[in-house]
UniProtKB/TrEMBL annotation:
Ranges for domain Pyruvate dehydrogenase E1 component middle: 486-711
Gene3D superfamilies: 3.40.50.920, 3.40.50.970
Listed InterPro entries: PDC_E1_N, PDH/Transketolase, PDH_E1, PDH_E1_M, THDP-binding, Transketo_C/PFOR_II, Transketolase-like_C_2, Transketolase_N
Organism of provenance: Zhihengliuella alba
Gene that encodes the chain: aceE_2
Catalytic activity, EC: 1.2.4.1
Name of the protein in its database record: Pyruvate dehydrogenase E1 component
Function according to Swiss-Prot or TrEMBL: Component of the pyruvate dehydrogenase (PDH) complex, that catalyzes the overall conversion of pyruvate to acetyl-CoA and CO(2).
One Pfam family in the UniProt entry: Transketolase_C_1
Length: 906
């Protein structure tokens, strides 16, 4: 193949010498092949750099297939058989969505994505994707969300789904028992889907960290995953998501050659071209190559091979390089004559190149992503490549084969149904044995097609899956036994801090350290911290648990002589994703679902600045919930006024509300270490004790950096109250008007201070309650209301837990937290007492803790004044008492605040 147009250089200096070098290279290529030529060129470039000769780096290659036709391996399958049942899948996938658009249903769906990507999937299913019964343990496949109808269509041919199931698409409650979720939703189809991917950008991140997690399991000696592959199917439009590209460097840095991205480059996003004026495949090639990935482009099908091997191929490649994606999309929406005139007609040379081809033959020049041989060659090369992750950029047509109303059209993504003519055309194109009469009988319900389980094509399909280790997708939850920690492991949490002060963050870290020391259980804990370990007091883990790095520590550490030296190891336990919350949640998800993906439970413990959790990565936590992740999420340095030195964007006053929107997140705001101990223990029992009906949860604990004395666990502590959400920690012995002070987390200290002031200064009796979970109390209250609503004949409906706990608690309630008022107000309707909330509403700012709390009026003296106001209205204290207290405590002066001390890392 001639790839250099020599006359271009005829007028340049040293043209003759240049031509000789080019001739020499061509000769070397012809004799030694592409691999040999590439090795020599790499050596020359390296030598040039050594001698400080500036050479421009080539980050893109020509707009042709990376693997030349003469280097393609033999396709091992029966291509014609595979084509036949692939056509049936494409038909059934489209019909399933179309039937869902019956006027009585109208649930939507996507037809075009799978129509264009079917070959990409089928080559994988037939020859590469290994199921869980394979000796390697199976591969993990992240399917493109909008292509889900194709996976259902395959499962139908496999006998895993029935026609009734297909007709339950997107009707999960009305067709319960025979229902299919719209996209890959493991929570809604827990034995089928393994990875949720339709929230674009999260699939790529999670696939990268799944590949890392597989290596982590292997390097730590937990499971041999050395032969497993991770496949992620993505859209070229999806690659615009920052999350899709933002973590590529991790895969390259850790040499994750067990990871393969397949980008379905149909050149279209949801509304139109991805890069109408540019070339998305070239852009992605440059981006991935620059990030350190191996790049394989699959641009053209076999029909182009003879044209690209002709003597005039250079002119054709030049046009391919210059034609923008917007034009390529237009060509596929037109016809062969249009392509002849507008593409090949750009030069006389290329026009003559196809002079002997008919318009139909030109139209049949396919894109590479629809060619079994080209895709097989790319997949084989990807799985055999060592040292780097691989991305396959496969060019396709969105809506391929669906007819002129669908193929390559801007609106194809939103098109849900086919006209009768579309159905007939599609049927003819796929050669489906269905008659016109069958289609005309009810155009909204064209029949599915299945040739019968005894058909040779179905036997071939099933044999391929048997050889590859079983069906995919499939999710299994059988896992190795987990020996939970004994009660003595929690002693550190019950003991308190003695006379020393300790923040709840430190109380938690001390407990975590003891849990990790447990001989039976400790190795299953996966601490995950995004570059703030020292802030949270977790640098003590560095020399013992070590930081996971598959390359080990090849440098001489600057702090090697210190007790808490920074140490990396391939067997390290601590995941350190850097300043990277999105990656940390992906690592959390991979570890927290290892019980299902690998049959080896891991307990991830993700510790982060509370402000940068659900606010920054809430969508990822939602996907984690869909994937049924189990683990602990620790929002450290929590509260709007506790980390005041950091200022507005670090001042968390709302994370419990954000967390409450996720049904799989169990949120706690503990005040003391012993509460943390009981919560952690209950969480582990729920996840892996085997007795809870819903173990697939993430426990979110907010902990603080403000130090105060951690009391020892009181004898006879109300454990049910701690876990249920509220328990009384200090009953007043004062005789006088009564009030109830409800607080959580660090605010419990202000409530205790207010209790003392009310007793000593105003003769008021105040009980103090630690509300460990406003959110769980609300959920329980809502459940009680719903139970009563659905059983109107019940004589004694269940009371909410908080109502029962506060039964007999006299007087008005003042609820205070270091969060916005909405947090405690979650339970307001379930407390019959008169209620007042003190909340840190608005933005945070930098100042002392005492000043900030006085500004928001959530401190001890504010609690006192608020309680006195309500008691005065009831006539239980003098009418002037609130005003006197307000003036005495200078409640409007931020410099008069006293609640809170200095100290604690930030």
């Amino acid at each position: 193949m001639t790839i250099i147009d020599e006359p271009r250089f005829a007028s340049e200096p040293d043209a003759e010498e240049r031509a000789e070098w080019i001739e020499s290279f061509d000769s070397m290529l012809k004799v030694g092949g592409a691999d040999r030529a590439g090795t020599i060129m790499s050596s020359l470039l390296e030598r040039a750099r050594e001698r400080q000769v500036a050479v421009a780096a080539a980050i893109t290659t020509d707009y042709v297939n990376t693997i030349p036709a003469d280097q393609e391996p033999e396709f091992p399958g029966d291509e014609e058989v595979e084509r036949r049942y692939r056509a049936w899948m494409r038909w059934n996938a489209a019909v399933m969505v179309h039937r869902g658009q019956h006027p009585d249903i109208g649930v939507g769906g996507h037809i075009s994505t799978y129509a264009g990507a079917a070959t990409l999937y089928e080559v994988g299913f037939n020859h590469f994707f290994r199921g869980k019964d394979h000796p390697c343990g199976g591969d993990q496949v992240f399917f493109q969300g909008h292509a889900s109808p194709g996976m259902y269509a395959r499962a139908f041919l496999e006998g895993r789904l029935s026609e009734e199931d297909l007709d339950g698409f997107r009707q999960e409650k009305s067709k319960e028992g025979h229902a299919l979720p719209s996209y890959p939703h493991p929570r809604n189809m827990p034995e089928f889907w393994e990875f949720p991917t339709v929230s674009m950008g999260i699939g790529p991140m999670n696939a990268i960290y799944q590949a890392q997690s597989n290596r982590y399991l292997h390097n730590r000696g937990i499971k041999d995953t050395s032969d497993q592959q991770v496949w992620a199917f993505l859209g070229d439009g999806e690659m615009d998501e920052p999350e899709s590209r933002g973590l590529l460097q991790l895969a390259a840095n850790e040499k994750l050659d067990n990871l393969n991205f397949v980008v379905n480059c149909n050149l279209q996003r949801l509304d139109g071209p991805v890069r109408g004026n540019g070339k998305i495949m070239q852009e992605l090639e440059a981006f991935f190559r620059g990030a350190g990935w191996n790049v394989i482009k699959v641009v053209w099908g076999r029909e182009w091979d003879s044209l690209l091997s002709s003597e005039n191929s250079a002119a054709l490649v030049d046009i391919m390089n210059r034609t923008p994606d917007g034009d390529y999309q237009t060509y596929k929406a037109e016809n062969g004559g249009f392509v002849r005139e507008h593409f090949f007609g750009k030069s006389q040379v290329t026009k003559e190149l196809v002079a002997d081809l008919s318009d139909d033959e030109i139209w049949n020049l396919k894109r590479g992503g629809h060619d079994y041989r080209k895709v097989y060659a790319a997949y084989k090369a990807a799985t055999e490549f060592k040292g780097k992750p691989t991305v396959i950029l496969a060019k396709t047509v969105k809506g391929y084969g669906l007819g002129p109303h669908f193929e390559g059209r801007n609106a194809t993504h939103q098109m849900k149904k086919l006209t009768l003519d579309d159905l007939k055309s599609f049927r003819d194109y796929l050669r489906i044995p269905i008659t016109d009469e069958q289609l005309e009988a009810d155009p909204y319900r064209p029949p599915y097609f299945h040739p019968g389980q005894d058909a040779p094509e179905i036997e071939y399909l099933l044999e391929r899956r048997r050889a590859l280790g079983g069906f995919l997708p499939e999710r299994r939850t059988r896992h190795a036994d987990v020996v939970l920690p004994e009660e003595k492991t929690y002693t550190i949490a019950k003991r308190g801090s003695g006379k020393q002060q300790a923040a709840t963050t430190m109380a938690f870290v001390r407990l975590l350290k003891d849990l990790m020391r447990d001989k039976e259980f400790g190795s299953r804990i996966v601490p995950i911290v995004p570059d703030e370990s020292r802030t949270f007091g977790m640098d003590a883990f560095f020399p013992t648990a070590k930081i996971y790095n598959p390359g080990g520590q090849e440098y001489l550490s600057v702090d090697r002589d210190l007790v808490l030296a920074y140490k990396e190891s391939p067997a390290g336990q601590l995941i350190h994703p850097g300043i990277n919350e999105a990656g940390a949640v992906s690592a959390f998800t991979a570890a927290g679902t290892a019980y299902a993906t690998q049959g080896e439970p891991l307990i991830p413990v993700y510790v982060f600045y509370s402000m940068f959790g659900f606010q920054r990565t809430g969508d990822s936590f939602w996907a984690a919930a869909d994937q049924m992740t189990r683990g602990f999420v620790i929002g450290a340095t929590a509260g709007r006024t506790t980390l005041t030195g950091e200022g507005l964007q670090h001042a968390d006053g709302h994370s419990p509300i954000l967390a409450a929107t996720n049904p799989a997140v169990v949120t706690y705001d503990p005040a003391y270490g012993y509460e943390i101990g009981h919560i952690m223990r209950a969480g582990l029992e729920r996840m892996y004790g085997g007795n809870h009906p819903d173990p697939n949860v993430m426990y979110y604990l907010t902990v603080y950096n403000e130090p105060y004395v951690q009391p020892a666990e009181p004898e006879g502590v109300d454990v049910d109250g701690i876990l249920g959400g509220i328990h009384r920690i200090a009953a007043s012995e004062t005789e006088g008007p009564r009030t109830q002070l409800l607080a959580s987390g660090v605010a419990v200290q202000w409530a205790l201070e207010a209790q003392r002031i009310l007793a000593e200064g105003w003769g008021v009796s105040a009980d103090v309650w630690s509300v460990t979970s406003w959110t769980e109390l609300r959920r329980d209250g809502l459940a009680a209301e719903r139970d009563a609503f659905l059983d109107p004949a019940a004589q004694s409906p269940r009371e909410p837990f908080v109502t029962r706990q506060l039964a007999g608690a006299e007087g008005p309630v003042v609820a205070a937290t270091d969060y916005m008022s909405q947090v405690p107000d979650q339970i307001r309707q379930y407390v019959p007492n008169e209620w007042a909330t003190l909340g840190a509403d608005g933005f945070g700012f930098s100042d002392t803790r005492a000043a900030a709390r006085r500004f928001f009026n959530i401190d001890a003296h504010s609690i006192v004044v608020r309680a006195l106001q309500m008691l005065a209205r009831r006539g239980e204290v003098p009418t002037e008492a609130p005003a006197q207290a307000f003036e005495r405590y200078r409640l409007d002066d931020v410099n008069a605040g006293t609640s809170g001390n200095a100290g604690g890392d930030s």
